[in-house]
Automatic annotation (TrEMBL):
<protein>
    <submittedName>
        <fullName>UDP-GlcNAc:betaGal beta-1,3-N-acetylglucosaminyltransferase-like 1</fullName>
    </submittedName>
</protein>
<dbReference type="Pfam" id="PF00535">
    <property type="entry name" value="Glycos_transf_2"/>
</dbReference>
<feature type="region of interest" description="Disordered">
    <location>
        <begin position="1"/>
        <end position="35"/>
    </location>
</feature>
<dbReference type="GO" id="GO:0016758">
    <property type="term" value="F:hexosyltransferase activity"/>
</dbReference>
<feature type="compositionally biased region" description="Acidic residues">
    <location>
        <begin position="19"/>
        <end position="30"/>
    </location>
</feature>
<dbReference type="InterPro" id="IPR001173">
    <property type="entry name" value="Glyco_trans_2-like"/>
</dbReference>
<dbReference type="InterPro" id="IPR029044">
    <property type="entry name" value="Nucleotide-diphossugar_trans"/>
</dbReference>
<feature type="domain" description="Glycosyltransferase 2-like">
    <location>
        <begin position="39"/>
        <end position="207"/>
    </location>
</feature>
């Protein structure tokens, strides 16, 4: 293994000549790019209570290639940066170089900004994204590196163990049980990326081809925006089918700052772009609240493609029609409501997964439908 290279800390760079030194360091990184196999990219904000466990796990990776840890501190007000610096010697003893920088503004600039800065100061051929409050298992870097070599234009994820146990139970089950085919089919569910951001691993070349993370700050789903852009660029989605990350749930997680309506709009727009634009007509499976909301969210062109709603609720079916009261058209659009056995594909299914005791899945199977061709989940 190559000897560790100590990256310059922002605090060590003198004020005078900073721009010149930054240019020189960037040139050095360009020259050495490829000398490091994997950069572990870690944004950080007030994470001191989790860092020892996180960094201990990084130091215990069984990967035999070269690694560095690139940390960007997004204006922490605790001693996070001091804790990371305290691990420098132990990391370098394991041949893991440490680069840490940050800013001391009054307010953090957001996860997207911090991730971009951590990536830009790193030099690995591959990027392993790590949240400061999560814990990677010893084989994570090795197994995802091997998978990424085989799929260089893909975002590679893994299975997770959620702590505390039982938190976000349905979401965690979805993360771990979605099939490899569904990773590229169930792109429109409410859960977000089919491989979650804290598990991402990819080649640097692919990251640079997609685009940087959105730096809009609090409330911006920078992971979903990047994920959708990767799909648009023709990127793949893959998962190592082993649990490689302890994924922590807590109230301070940045995920909680993103509103459901923000995610809804992104999903609707992506669905219209990737699926509905290719269909001449379709049926919305669910004549209830979620199905009607989807209809109202569609563009006028795609609303006209909705030939029916379908459902299993006899009360909804007996009404016969859904009338779009908010429409400015005269007469107002009236969409038929049918029993699902009387409806025809393709369908957009607006029924929550894992909530019907398998009844929804049985109904779909009874019609001999193929997911990704005859129907897509939007739930």
């Amino acid at each position: 293994m190559n000897p560790p290279k100590r990256l310059r800390s922002e605090a060590e760079t003198p004020t005078g000549g900073r721009e010149e030194e930054e240019r020189e360091e960037e040139e050095e990184r360009e020259e050495e790019r490829g000398a490091v196999d994997v950069s572990i990219v870690m944004p950080m904000y007030n994470a001191s209570c989790w860092l020892d466990e996180c960094l201990q796990a990084i130091s215990l990776q069984d990967f035999t290639g070269t690694m560095e840890l690139s940390v960007f501190d997004d204006a922490s007000t605790d001693d996070s940066r001091k804790v990371v610096e305290g691990w420098r010697e132990r990391l370098e003893a394991r041949s893991i170089s440490l680069g840490i920088s940050g800013h001391d503004s009054a307010q953090p600039r957001g996860v997207g900004y911090a991730k971009n800065k951590a990536v830009s100061q790193s030099c690995g051929q591959h990027l392993c994204f790590q949240d400061a409050d999560d814990v990677m298992l010893p084989q994570r870097v090795r197994l995802q590196y091997e998978a990424s070599l085989l799929q260089p234009n893909s975002l590679v994820g893994c299975k997770v163990r959620r702590v505390p146990e039982g938190s976000t139970e349905r979401y965690t089950r979805w993360i771990n049980t979605i099939t490899q085919d569904q990773l590229t089919i169930q792109l429109y569910t409410s859960h977000g990326p089919t491989v979650i951001m804290p598990t991402w691993f990819c080649s640097r070349d692919w990251f640079l081809k997609v685009e940087p993370f959105d730096e809009g700050g609090k409330g911006v789903p920078e992971d979903l925006l990047f994920f959708y852009q990767s799909i648009r660029q023709g990127g793949g989605v893959a998962r190592v089918d082993e649990c490689l990350l302890v994924y922590r749930y807590h109230e301070k997680a940045t995920t909680h700052s993103v509103t459901e309506e923000t995610i809804w709009k992104l999903r609707v727009d992506f669905l219209q772009e990737r699926v509905l634009g290719q269909w001449e007509s379709f049926t919305i499976w669910n004549a209830g609240k979620q199905g009607r909301k989807l209809y109202r969210s569609l563009s006028p062109t795609n609303q006209e493609k909705v030939k029916a709603f379908c459902d299993v609720d006899e009360n909804k079916i007996q009404k016969g029609f859904y009338t779009y009261e908010e429409s400015k058209q005269r007469p107002k659009p009236k969409i038929p409501v049918l029993h699902y056995k009387d409806a025809s594909a393709p369908f957009i299914v607006c029924v929550k997964l894992d909530m019907t005791g398998g009844v929804l899945e049985e109904n779909l199977d009874s019609l001999q439908l193929k997911e990704g061709t005859d129907y897509y989940h939007f739930n």
